[in-house]
Amino acid sequence: MIETASFHNCFENVQIFSKPKSQDSMNEDVAAATPTCLVVADGVTTKTVNPSGSNITGAHVARRVADRVISSANTGAALVLELNADVKSHFYPQESDASSDTRPACVFACLRIHNDELIITQVGDVGVRINGRKIYLNPVLIDTLTSTARAHYIQLTEDSQGSREFILPLLRAQSQYRNNAVHPLGYGVIDGGATPSKFVTTTAIALSNIQSIEIFTDGYPEAPSGVSIEEWEKRYLEVAEQDPDRCQQYPATKTADDRTVVIAGINRGHKSA
After folding, report:
1. Which terminal residue of the chain has fewer beta carbons within 10 Å of its beta carbon, N or C?
2. Does the CA dihedral 190-196-197-198 come out positive or negative?
3. How far apart are CA 131 and CA 149, in angstroms?
4. In the sheet that 10-19 helps form, which strands lie side by side, from edge to edge?
5. Quick one: three-class SS letters along the chain?
6. pLDDT tens for each residue of 135-151
7. Taking a C-beta distance cutoff of 8 angstroms, is the pair 102, 46 a contact?
8. Residue-level pLDDT at 102
9. Gap between the Cα atoms of 235 and 252, Å rounded
10. pLDDT tens by residue, 100-113
């Protein structure tokens, strides 16, 4: 009898945990999964006084993007082009300006299995960790600067409650740098416009080198040592105790944010006679 190998590469033991920053707030993180695709999208609602399409939130854009990623077969730049076209046609079909900086938007990470590789596509700061060690993350410089400004304000004034109002002008001005490939403060989002290629990160990893996969949003200030939802939540609570105002070791633009983590393994198939 001749033994042949039959491989069915797919994700297995997928776990999804997502929680809003508070009980009375909308969760703008969205996660979805199929046997060959994982996606996490983090919505961004602009802080402008009269945003275009004010009935649309970052959560709406994130959900649209996650659903489109799942239904698509694309990766990399082709996927980003598809997502922006879909967001524009669904939310802004009558608008000629496809890159208004007042629009709600989202960032995302898509992990798609293609043959014997995992293809990671990222726009923004949704992170990916492989085998509990190697992290693929694209920090946004302007977020770091704004977080630092808030931290300094709290350290100087001890006014944690007023810190968000203090940086609100910075947050409102931040959107002018979205999808701006020339300015040093530029960053990438999906908003129905054009996302420059410099903000699209594509990574290919052989499935044979993967034991575990984690996708996480910036609501988690630091990755844990272990690979489980319990470990992620434990580390989150430890940081909340160490730096409750998020102005010391873990500066942020707010004390808490929506947080989402997706964990999965790889099923490489089975051998059959």
Report:
1. N
2. negative
3. 34
4. 10-19, 259-267, 212-216, 127-130, 134-136
5. CCCEEECCCEEEEEEEEEECCCCCCCCCEEEEEECCEEEEEEEECCCCCCCCCCCCCHHHHHHHHHHHHHHCCCCHHHHHHHHHHHHHHHHCCCCCCCCCCCCCEEEEEEEEEECCEEEEEEECCCEEEECCCEEECCCCHHHHHHHHHHHHHHHHHCCCCCHHHHHHHHHHHHHHHECCCCCCCCECCECCCCCCHHHCEEEEEEHHHCCEEEEECCCCCCCCCCCCHHHHHHHHHHHHHHCCCCCCCCCCCCCCCCEEEEEEEEECCEEEC
6. 999 999 999 999 999 99
7. yes
8. 76
9. 16
10. 677 899 999 999 99
Q: How many residues does the chain have?
A: 273
Mean pLDDT of 70-74: 98
Given the structure tokens 């430890």, which residue do they identify? 238
Nearest by Cα to 190 from 21, 66, 18: 66
Sequence-distant (6+) residues with CB within 8 A of 118 are: 111, 112, 204, 205, 206, 207, 210, 213, 266
Amino acid at 55: N
Q: CA Rg, the chain, in Å?
A: 19
